[in-house]
């Protein structure tokens, strides 16, 4: 061990005492992935937070990731689970401390779109989100390929479009983030048998985002880029569920894509 | 809701596919706190990670924060708990993906220094950490002021110096990070009765760091700065335990102070 040293900070430090909404200098893999997204529109509309903005993160087990269901308060670490939702939340509450955003995780393991729909009153509308983020789709495919569900990518597309049409009517002022369903081939649950049909799920999510979202988060591209840095097993244990590194990667991509 | 927009990324993006160990542009409160630390030494020695570096985060409940004790593997979200340790870990595994660091949390709720000592063989030496981070001290004070413990700041100082002397002998090549015990006055458990004696705990930790650490993380200064942005209750529920925002604040400060 060596004697103590103090680290002199970079001279570019911001002096104001207010916490600016400065973007993290994200790892280059996230950067490369977001850049790959062609801008279909010239506007750079990002997500805006107001004071005490309610941010709702919705989806399946990737979002859920062990959250304590009985804890319903916002910004509770236990209620946010162990995945990307928790890591987005902690970044938001720090980086936007002056606005004191309120983040909820209402992901439910195993969900497909129609199951979101069935609980949407309680788990979306009643929370009156200012910002709504959804990651759904892998189960619409996975449960079907495993023979537990008779849906198809077309059913997913139709269900999702209908859900967002209804959501837009009920929450006209809510900003929407649609996240791309992703899969990492060659790890446990995900095999070549998933392709090319899984790409139809991804395309459907993109179509839903084109019509209803302010921001689309290209998770598949992000993971594809990540594979250039570390192998698939570094990011996921089963090809579907992001692990610690994968979750942080997703959170960083979400924050970058939303401008938050 | 509005039509889809894609966010064009900043032109300063790094183009290489390797993940650089680029520092986050941390919120200005962390920055201000780290800058306040006078550099006693000219060197800017930071923490260096080697391939598969073992990083051990030790301490009390602030570190522990509900980790699943039965899960002993590295980089497991459940084993890392809900606090700053988990948020340091996810940042490290993403930002240093090419090095694949292995992070363990062995914080134990309620611990004082002598209790670390009593379990140090299993919970430190046996893990052979390349990087060892310790946050301990609040209980050495809190349990005493509550009448459950008869130690004093001098006992804490003596215990800690002895622990680190032994640690240095057993782990001569391990890089050490000593974190400053902190308290946020006026919230629940922390009152004016804590002062000025609690500052003796802080001073003792700093003295231990001067002799044995590569990096000292000034958590008290960080929280003091944070109060300029949001009130105490935003960062902690009881003045001792950082909540979601407080944990993220601590993690960012740690990452900045260590250069990781």
Main sheet properties of chain A: 5 strands, parallel
Distance separating the two termini of chain A: 39 Å
Shape of chain A: globular
How many alpha or pi helices of chain A?
11
Average pLDDT metric of chain A: 88
- What's the quaternary structure here? homodimer
CATH architecture of chain A: 3-Layer(aba) Sandwich
Element order of chain A: H for helix, E for strand:
HEHHHEHEHHEHEHHH
How much beta of chain A, percentage-wise?
5-15%
Q: Work out the largest interface and the residue count of each chain.
A: A-B, 90 and 90 residues
* Number of E-state strands of chain A: 5
Under CATH at level 1, the class of chain A stands as Alpha Beta
Q: Which spans of chain A of ≥5 residues are poorly predicted at pLDDT below 50? A: 1-25
Overview of the structural elements:
Two copies of one chain form a homodimer. Chain A has 260 residues and is α/β, with parallel strands linked by helices. Chain A has a single domain (37-258), classed as 3-Layer(aba) Sandwich (Rossmann fold). Helices cover 42% and strands 9% of the residues of chain A. Chain A is built from eleven helices and five strands. Chain A has helices at residues 28-36, 61-64, 77-80, 84-95, 113-123, 138-145, 153-170, 197-212, 219-226, 232-235, 244-258; strands at 54-59, 102-105, 131-135, 175-179, 215-217. The first copy, chain A, has a five-stranded parallel beta sheet, with helices on both faces. In chain A, helix 1 (28-36) crosses helix 9 (219-226) and helix 1 crosses helix 11 (244-258). At the A-B interface, helix 1, helix 3, helix 4, helix 8 and helix 11 of A face helix 1, helix 3, helix 4, helix 8 and helix 11 of B.
């Amino acid at each position: 061990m060596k004697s103590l040293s103090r680290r002199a900070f970079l001279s570019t430090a911001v002096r104001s005492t207010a916490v600016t909404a400065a973007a993290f200098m994200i790892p280059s893999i996230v950067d490369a992935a977001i850049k790959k997204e062609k801008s279909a529109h010239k506007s750079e509309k990002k997500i805006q937070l107001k004071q005490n903005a309610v941010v709702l993160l919705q989806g399946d087990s990737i979002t859920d990731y062990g959250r304590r269901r009985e804890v319903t308060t916002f910004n509770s670490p236990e209620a946010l689970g162990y995945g990307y939702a928790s890591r987005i939340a902690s970044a938001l509450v720090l980086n936007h401390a002056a606005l004191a955003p309120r983040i909820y995780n209402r992901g439910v393991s195993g969900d497909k779109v129609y199951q979101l729909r069935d609980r949407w009153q309680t788990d979306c509308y009643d929370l009156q989100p200012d910002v709504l983020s959804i990651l759904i789709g892998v189960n619409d495919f996975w449960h079907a390929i495993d023979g537990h569900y008779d849906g198809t990518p077309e059913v997913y597309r139709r269900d999702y479009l209908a859900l967002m049409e209804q959501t837009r009517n009920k929450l006209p002022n809510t900003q929407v983030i649609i996240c791309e369903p992703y899969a990492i081939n060659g790890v446990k649950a995900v095999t070549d048998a998933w392709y090319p049909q899984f790409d139809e799920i991804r395309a459907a999510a993109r179509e839903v985002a084109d019509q209803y979202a302010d921001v689309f988060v290209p998770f598949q591209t992000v993971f594809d880029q990540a594979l250039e840095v570390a192998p698939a097993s570094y990011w996921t244990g089963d090809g579907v569920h992001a692990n610690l590194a994968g979750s942080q990667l997703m959170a960083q991509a979400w924050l970058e894509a939303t401008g938050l």
